[in-house]
Amino acid sequence: MFAMMEASRQEALHFAQDPATGLKAVIAIHSTRLGPALGGCRYLAYPDEQSAIHDAMRLAQSMSYKAALAGLEQGGGKAVIMRPAHVANRGALFEAFGRFIETLGGRYITAVDSGTSSADMDCIAQHTRHVTSTSRGGDPSPHTAMGVFAGIRASAMARLGSNDLEGLRVAIQGLGHVGYALAEQLHAVGAELLVSDLDAGRVQLAVEQLGAKAVPCADLLATPCDILAPCGLGGILNAETVGQLHCAVVAGAANTQLADLAVADSLQNRGILYAPDYVINSGGLIYVALQHRGESLTTITAHLTKISERLTEIYAHAQAEKRSPARVADSLAERLLYGR
Ligand code: NAD
């Protein structure tokens, strides 16, 4: 356990259990060097405790990197609640989790993540103020989409020499909360949309409302386009799929798009510009972090411009150093966190 913590430089791991509600939770605090650790709470069934702990630590580290590169005075953390097979009272379980967070005295701030909702955050909020994305807070997805849109413009500028997206073919995988909002913004500036989603209804809506062209899910990655925007699940770029791509840029909202960093090198070798996912999709984090601090919507929207500035900086380093933007982003984040 300690070796695992040391390998990814985790500050602390906290555990809580509450037999009355069935709560079994892990909070990984990766770093509080730049501020309190902020990161979502997952509520998922895990095969064993080890995989839950591993997930919390891995995600907490990526939150530290994301917050650092987003220019936030915020550290990185993540919570994982092991979802029981049966739960008698979900609200009571999340209230117990709220009491757990309160014991950490503000070193960890929670948020919505896979398997949790703003209603769960409302239950947590009954016992601690160290919680974001409650039903009063609003959905961060439109802000994530705004950041991705700005990031796509910066990426087009770096790779294609212009940030004018009119007439560019953008293939979007996944038309959920972020993907659909992104599609709307791209449509508004005259981009040509090629879209897929597991939910045929979402695709039909984009076809009717945005003039998008529907592409079968299995064909989207190989579809010839200028920009590929993965906005579905993570892990879609691997040794096999990289060879299928026919695009100049990969820039989308999905978390952990790369199976590993070697995939980033393959993209680089193929001349495909990759927008590091945790940089381009940081709009949602910027929204919840600044909203939690009581900042205005104007300040939050202004802060979103840091995403395209950071990407432009990363691309300049990547070009000068002949390295993948993904590797450059990690190095920059580590410099901000550890001063090296
Ligand atoms: P969502 O669940 O609302 O939407 C995801 C959509 O992708 C769904 O409609 C789903 O049917 C579709 N999808 C999944 N796999 C697919 C596939 N193989 N082919 C085609 N469609 C597929 O999720 P979201 O909130 O829009 O988030 C999208 C991605 O962005 C996720 O990876 C998420 O982790 C990441 N992200 C989201 C936010 C946010 O603010 N919501 C912030 C940062 C990162």
From TrEMBL:
InterPro entries: Aminoacid_DH-like_N_sf (IPR046346), Glu/Leu/Phe/Val/Trp_DH (IPR006095), Glu/Leu/Phe/Val/Trp_DH_C (IPR006096), Glu/Leu/Phe/Val/Trp_DH_dimer (IPR006097), Glu/Phe/Leu/Val/Trp_DH_bac/arc (IPR016211), NAD(P)-bd_dom_sf (IPR036291). Keywords: NAD, Oxidoreductase. Residues 138-339 form the Glutamate/phenylalanine/leucine/valine/L-tryptophan dehydrogenase C-terminal domain. It holds the Pfam family ELFV_dehydrog. Belongs to the Glu/Leu/Phe/Val dehydrogenases family. Catalyzes the reversible oxidative deamination of glutamate to alpha-ketoglutarate and ammonia. This is Glu/Leu/Phe/Val dehydrogenase.
